[in-house]
Fold this protein.
Amino acid sequence: MASGNMKDIKRRIKSVQSTMQITKAMELVASSKLRHARERVTKSRPYFNTIYKTMARIAQDTKAGDSIYTKPRQVKKSLFIVIAGDRGLAGGYNSNVLKLAASEMQGKNPCVVTIGKKSQEYYAKRDVEVIADYPNIAETMQIQDTHPIVNDMLSRYKKGEIDEVYILYTEFVSPMTQETRCKKVLPLAFEADETTEKAKSLTEYDPSPEAVFASVVPEYLNGMLYGAVVESYASEQSSRRMAMESASDNASEMIENLNLSYNRARQAAITQEITEIVAGAGQVG
């Protein structure tokens, strides 16, 4: 019995060691990708902040309320751009943003644009209209890759096919913290601050503030979508690194416990053999 138990424990130890090698490798890969992803986040944030302030300033200088992009309308259909990962094994990264999307869609007539394979797979199994799927683009996405998505969104918005647009993504706060976000991108709304108020009287627009505002809107939305994708990708790698680190730690602890069990089983087998030898010697004597 002891010999059979020892073989089972030995087999489990080898299995857990093989799993730990995989989780360690995935942790290293995620760490490497995270470094590059953080650089993209760091570079994208100043661009987005600048274009946001520019849009807010123009909105102060023009009758933005009359623009098709800012004028409120009766909401009959809502578009949700849901950004998830292309792979699993990332802790709660994918499930958290999908849960937020489900919550935000309550009481609305939603349609969806999916970015990421996990988002695509999720909505393929649900009774929600999917306008377009964009899997496997987050890792290599450039700002120009957002143009087809934004152009299609604006075309539908102008035609009245959709009445509001939300982006759901995961913000990269720190390597240990990622937070799901839902931002309304259409119709546009800006908050004025002291900076925009001071710049209001110092800026001239050609041909007009309204024309400049309309021409900058697509670039603003491209920047917002790109920023959401790179934030989400960095969050995905960070979540995967933490999940794999935790899995490796758990595997290491399991191996220690199995080694302890193996040593105990081996000691029990040795003790049993000694007992049998002593008992046999006593019978011979």
About this structure: The chain has a mean pLDDT of 83. The helical segments are 2-61, 93-105, 117-124, 147-159, 194-200, 209-284. The beta strands are 78-83, 110-115, 129-134, 164-174, 177-186. The chain has six helices and five strands.
